[in-house]
Every structure is written in C-alpha cells, then in structure tokens.
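Give me structure tokens for this 391-residue protein.
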Amino acid sequence: MKVNIVDFYPSDKKMTKKLYNFIIEHYKDDPYFVPTLKIDLLGSKLLGIKGLLRNDHPFFEHAEAKYFMAFDENSRPVGSIAAVINHAHNQYHNENIGFFGFFECIEDYKVAKKLLDSAKEFLKSKGIKIVRGPANFSTNEPVGLMISGFDNIPYMYTAYNKKYYQDFIEKYGGIKVMDLIAMLMPVVIEDEEKEKERKERMAKLVNKIKDRYNIRIENFKKSSKKHLEDIELIYREAWKDNWGFVPPTKKEFKILADSLKIAADPLLVKIAYINNEPAAFIGALPDINEVVHRKKKSNEFIKLFSLIWYLFRKKFTRTRLMLFGIREQFRRTGVDSVLFYEEFESARYKGRKYKDCEISWLLETNTLIINAAKRQNAEEYKRWRLYDISI
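Here you go.
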C-alpha cells in the first residue's frame, strides 16, 4: 500500500478535525471504545473551552507540537501521530526528550513505521535525543499505551488503544521506561458480613488516627477560593518529585479547577487538614464515560445534556479516583486511610449509587498508595506503558 504522510500544526483547524474524525472512525466497531468529547479536543468558543488540539490551549505556551497523518492511495486516513516538545518538562527534569502522542494506526506495521519515523525526524531536527510516549500530551492528559485490561469500558481521561500497538512500538525499538497501573475498588462489598467488618475495622482505625494527629476533613466547596488554593498547594508539593510530573502553569491549573467546579461531586473531593494546615486531598469524579459510552452514536449536544442529567440526578455508578496527594511532611501519618474511609462513606450518601471506583493512574513504583488501596480491597486490573525510543 502506498502511504502519503501529511504534516500540520495545531493551528490547522481543518486537519485537526480530520484527525478527530479519523479516531472516531478507527474505533467505530470496538464495543469498549469511548470517544473523547469533541469539545475536549477541538474546544468551544461558546463555552470558553480550550481544546487540547488547539494552539491556544495553555499547554502550548511552553510546548510545541506537530501532527502527522497517513493517507492511502485513495486519500483515506490510515494513521496519525503527534510529535511534541514540552520545554517545561525538559527544564524541570533537566532532560532533552520529546514525546509522541495521538498515535493511531491501521493494522499495518509499515504505516506505523512511517508515522514513527516522521515524528522522530521532526524531533531530531529540534535536537532531541530521546522520544517518549505515547502521551497526549503531558501527565495532565491521557498517557501511556494500554497493555492489559482490554475487556472493559475505559474510565474517563484514560488512554485506550488497539492491542496490536504494543507489538508495533516494541518492534520499532521502544523500550519500557515506566508502567502506570489502575486498581479497581468496590465501593460496596456485596457480602454484608465482610462489608460490616470492613466498616467497623476502618472506623476504629480512622478515629484513632484523627485524634492522634488532629486531622480535620472538609468537603470541597465549588465556590471556595481557599479550597482551590489549598488543593493547588497540595497538588504542587505532593507531586513535585514524581516521575514525569511537571508543575502546571496557572492557566493549566485553572482548567483543572474549572473541571472540578463543573463535574465534581463535592462530597467526593475532600481536603485533609492537620493542625489546621492543608495536608492532603482526594478527588474522585463521576465517570462521564459511563454516559458517553451509552450515547456514543448521539450528537455532542445529546451527550452533554445526558451528562448534566446524570450529574443532577446522581445516577453514576462508576467513579474515577484521579486526584490524590499528601504533602511530604504529612506522609505516614495515616491520613491516606482517613481520606479513603471518608470517601467510601460519602460515595453511599443521600441516594448516590456508586458501585466501582478506579484508582488511576498510579506509578508502578508508588507503593505507598498502592498498598493503601489494597487495604481497601482494591486490585490491579489495568496497566499502561510508556516507552523510550532512541534517536
């Protein structure tokens, strides 16, 4: 098959729309695929949303990207990739690496190789020595190549891909650099005796920890400027030494804050204070994929209306615990157990119907949180992998 590679920048709205449409078409027969909401990628002037594929997204204030699409001899799209240089990452970690993302490809290694070659050559021309990915585009967005857990609907803002991509990337020379894992935790244990035993055991432990360290828990208030400031402080300090983390700019954090204000169930976002000082926070969001998957053949308006209805009626049964951090000086106080316990209690409060919680993603080296999750009956059920490719 003859393949033509076309390159473009985020400012090319016509091509970014083609990229989005290709991804939708590529997975149209996959029963588990959940399309990313169009406004998340292409933005909306009416709603004031900066789409990730737009050059006015705050990410591009410290990064640059170039996209490539592969077309066959009949001008049909057969693959895509983005080459990215995150200057903030390189400065923060003192590295000289580039990233590849939005990697999609028909089941033909020749097409995959041409796409990866294109991204690599662009990054090489910029003086980059290592290509890492997949990442769309930073740890604030979906990252990693899913290598296990293909038999279920992905949770919101987690990467999903074709199983054969792993063979393609490893054949191209990709070397594992880090695995990210997801753990699935039951909100309610069906065995009533076990549920009662877990609750009593945890309540006793939590009360002791609270008394010993003078811990106070506050539920997130969307209108509270202080709560947002405390979350930002904890977020920056708790993650500052994490592998791959880059402190978000004020504009990037505002996107996170706006998401919390719109989509959060306030009882599932909690801040822990120790001696009145912000120490840790936990944030689980209702899994919008639960709705989008059901409505994936509907137009964008129907999807958004359905999401609002589910949020208002508290109809979600799935939640993703995607924000969890403890400032270094408060680690090993047991505040993690307190937050987990409080989260469990809130997930069943006033008509809420949550049954399952995905904790993701976690660095495979993050034994502190992994062990804390295991104590809550969570088990690993999905894994993503990041690769390095030498130039």
